[in-house]
Amino acid sequence: MERKPTLIFDGDCSFCRVWIKGWKERTGNQVTYIPFQQSGILEKYQISESDAKKAIHLISPSGERLQSSFHLCSSYGLFAVMTTSRPEIVIEGSEDGIEWKEYEFHYKPGNPNSSPRFVAPHQPRLDWQMWFAAMQLPPNWVLNFMIRLLQGSPEVIKLLKHNPFPIHPPRLIRAAYYKYQIATLEEHRDQKLWWRREKLGLYFPPCQLTDQEEAA
After folding, report:
1. Which is nearest to 23 in space by CA: 35, 33, 11, 37?
2. pLDDT average, residue stretch 60-83
């Protein structure tokens, strides 16, 4: 019997290999990672080749296996089919309207060199809603969010991973609009990229506080 969990994955899948590399960095020696192509693995764990290609399999030390409708990477969930690219809003602040600095979120894609994070069972509400906001015209809550950043609201800033204006809020703020795609294995290996992105324009133009908003 295995003394630690074993994760069986598709070694021919470049996306899977990139993710497994990230998982190894986080779990160290606590989990054993084995491609299903390794001789005798499918027979040992009684996994069919077709099932092994559909999802990764986590085998617990007691021999229990996450499978059926609850594969770790299966269609069980809100979105059965995911797109290969995603629109993203990147909030930027500036003092002079020339140099713009990005605010970073905890979970949603931002810095192309930052790896995706594990969130379950936590629901990253702000990051989740930012993704939906990117697929529509700016809702009122996004505008209010940007106003609070201009006001330097401590409660709002705590929701972010990185505030590029730690001393005082910026004079201007805007929202850039990007298309993100998962980096290829080669891009990840050579450039340490997890994402590649293309700027499509502005989601919301530069704005600043009115006297009334500054006093709020």
Report:
1. 33
2. 60
Give tens-digit pLDDT for 60-69: 888 887 754 3
Angle between helices 125-133 and 140-151 (to 10 degrees): 120
Q: Buried (b) or exposed (e) across 87-102, using 16+ Cβ within 10 A?
A: bbbbbbbbeeeeebee
**H-helix or E-strand containing 80?**
none
Dihedral (CA of 171, 176, 182, 183) sign: negative
Instruction: Supply the DSSP string of 96-162, one letter for each residue.
Output: SSSS-EE-EESSSS-STTSPP---TT---HHHHHHHHHTTSS--HHHHHHHHHHHHT-HHHHTTEEE
Take residue 84 and report the two structure tokens written for it. 């290969």
CB 10 within 8 A of CB 4: no
| Contact (CB, 8 A) for 174 and 147 | no
Flag whether the pTM goes above 0.85.
Answer: no
In whole angstroms, give the CA distance from residue 200 to residue 88: 10
- Tell me the CA distances in angstroms from 179 to 32, 50, 114, 194, one per residue in order: 35, 33, 16, 14
Q: Tokens in use for 82?
A: 């995911």
* Secondary structure tally for the chain: helices H, strands E: 8, 10
Distance separating the N- and C-terminal Cα atoms of the chain: 63
